[in-house]
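Handoff note, outgoing to incoming analyst
You'll be picking up this chain. Sequence as last confirmed:
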Amino acid sequence: MGIQNGITHAFIVEFGSAKDRDYYVNNDPAHREFKDLAGKVLEKAQVIDFTDRVFEIVMG
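Most recent structure output, in case you need it:
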């Protein structure tokens, strides 16, 4: 399967603030619709949340 673990596509979304991101993730109707539709065709999804110029390694 390789290092990409089967992931073939990526989408990057940039937000002006954590508040904007939280609204999009939790309340935005368009995002909710996207999740509902994508869930019907995607085998798996992975979300990576990062902050510009902040680097942490989390092992888990």
